[in-house]
């Protein structure tokens, strides 16, 4: 960690002065293809898991990539941690969409558990499922266990009894974005619709708290509402406890971390591959209530998150944190770039993420 971290994705700033910039390559000189990813720290190494994206198109042709590093700068390709299945009938067969992979280690079982957003082959983004795989070693290979919707048949803990008892006339809500439709979304229109089969899960992350409890944070209800669900002690299922936050807020790409006794979450709006103004939230309990704050970014391009979209916050010793984002290139997603920036705190204790062309942890 004594090397300078050179931030890639600098075209956000450097295009203004006409300078060129290079891509981030691994120790073998190959482009790092690990998008929408997250970092696992284990055994003196960092493991970066991310989507292997194709040069053209957006379906998954390879699987989830894994890289390792001891300094967060120089990365070795460890291989494909979870490959697509050669079996056509498999839920993770070639042609599915595997996004936002995150890995956490379970000290009780000794297993490494991988969760990811899964869309089934030839169904676009209709399935909105979460996939789960396990391994005995950090880099894998991981064994696909199953995919699912979240907590079928169970209401969120913070959904009121009157809202649980609502009976919806769906013909009244075919037109989106009307005041009546917005009110219905807030009251649980899509929660009720998906109750039997389980809640939708698209952009997601995982978080392990100080007490070892783990949580799945994901964009649900047609990307309109964030939900937070507690995982079982083995991190391979749900306890049935979950909440919904900011119904109708249209948040995705959640990245969460804890500083002291405060939980912080950074998300993006829903504008496809185009960058937008990030959002920031805080809470003194994982179960809320959550409060929204202005975005934490400072510098040219801050109002569009420097051209990136949040994917993960890496927590390091001594209260250091790294914000990670993807700078998407929809014409060739393989070559989408990365932004890594330190998170600092102002005098009021609010997170601040300032643009830096290069930096190293203090």
UniProtKB/TrEMBL annotation:
Record-level GO BP terms: carbohydrate metabolic process
Keywords noted in UniProt: Glycosidase, Hydrolase
Keyword flag Membrane: no
Source organism superkingdom: Bacteria
Record-linked InterPro entries: Glyco_hydro_43, Glyco_hydro_beta-prop_sf
Signal peptide: none
Alphabetized GO MF terms: hydrolase activity, hydrolyzing O-glycosyl compounds
The family this protein is said to belong to: Belongs to the glycosyl hydrolase 43 family.
Gene3D superfamilies in UniProt: Glycosyl hydrolase domain, family 43 (2.115.10.20)
Species assigned in the record: Bacteroides fluxus YIT 12057
Pfam families from the UniProt entry: Glyco_hydro_43 (PF04616)
Name by which UniProt lists this protein: Glycosyl hydrolase, family 43
Taxonomy of the source species: Bacteria, Pseudomonadati, Bacteroidota, Bacteroidia, Bacteroidales
